[in-house]
Write a structure and sequence with these properties.
single chain; 312 residues; Non-ribosomal Peptide Synthetase Peptidyl Carrier Protein, Chain A; 15 helices; alpha/beta; TIM Barrel
Length: 312
Amino acid sequence: MVCLAPMAGVTDASYRQFIKRLAPEAIVYSEFLSTDALAHGSKKTREMMHFDPQLERPFIVQVFGRKPEHFVEAAKVVEDMGADGVDLNMGCPAAKVVSSSHGSALMKDPDLAAELVAATVKVVRIPVSVKTRLGWDASDDLVAFGRKLVGAGAAALAVHGRTYTQKFTGKADWEPIYELKRHVNVPVIGNGDIASAEDARAKIGNLDGVMVGRGTFGNPWLLRQICDALHGSDHPCKAPETFEERIPFILDHCRLAAAIKGEKWGMMEMRRHLASYVRGIPGAAEMRAKLVRVESVAEVEKILGIGDQKHQ
């Protein structure tokens, strides 16, 4: 299996749908959402869960928190809205998340982590999975932690190959993930430092799948290429070779974001993607400075030179 990693502020409906256009087989995740907010009926948080069942399946909602009763209520909401699974975040290293004893902090409290899984599994019929890391500051307890989660009912585990203390520095270590797979009887998905189809093919080892996050920034073709590489396609996908060839895809992404969220808000969400799309091209710094302020698709067209071409 090939998965688009859940990323706050990134994996909204427009990004998921754009990725799925290129890689229909990919499993996509929502941004991570607060169980506290869902349990209290937050309208904004529920809106962030919205997905198109015709375009985004398999679709999994990722949630975070630490109160079992809130996981129960959130999981019911996720199931009722038609998602294909609910994923419990036990790996986010963001300071504001960990300081509230959420995300990566749960690796230090395996009993509570297992309780959250068990409570969630008990109230829904859809699969309950967990995304975590190697450990707090070492990978010594990963197998024990993973086995405890599976014992509580986790249907799958995704593991980022770094510890909490590493955050996103250093090199992802997949060896402990391979060892975890040898000790559990559920799918295990590896995550971390996959920037090419070759990386995915080299890293998958005995695992059941790979999950890619930051590697897709500016390269939405990556998941398609990984699917082709892992499934032995005779005609593997190739990304557009020149920036000019990428422009139609960039504009399609912009129009999709504008259609889903409204033009102004959609373009605000697109700014980080636009900055990634122009990375490495001549004049990137100047173009990026303009793109991170856009409020309309027309502005993007003008900056990319499309407006000038229309009037020639």
